[in-house]
Model the fold of this input.
Amino acid sequence: MRTARLRTVHPVLWTGWAALAAGAVLCVLGWYGVSGERYAERQLPYLASCTVPGAALIVAGAVLLTHGRGALAAARVEELYGLLVAAEPADAEESGTAAGAPLAVSGDLLMVPGGTLWHRADCPLVAGKVESVPVDAKLLASGELGPCPICEPVEETD
Done:
């Protein structure tokens, strides 16, 4: 499933590659023209008509490619996040679970060492992972860990 945003990014990438190619061709033509002339006053037209616009096209192509790849990556992340969070189980109506309810309801809190989020024990992101450990209260108090947006855990107050 590809979104409309993914389809709009591809022309930006193709335009970037075309600008890079055209800029490279102009730079080669400018170099070839300059290399055949002995005097600087005869080299200037090649610099002005080929090399400078070629360099500008190369820079423009690089900017377009960077923007297009960043937009493509962002669109893919949005699509994956939408699939992970917004997708309801097929049998949600049959089981009687509410659509807005969090995916996990356990009271035990877990974290993955080196991670930035804390989760409920039955959160799909940590469930079944052997490396998940109970949350350290010091990390919670210091604010180094944030709540998981998937399972929406509630911090226990002692």
In short: Residues 40-85 form the longest helix (46 residues).
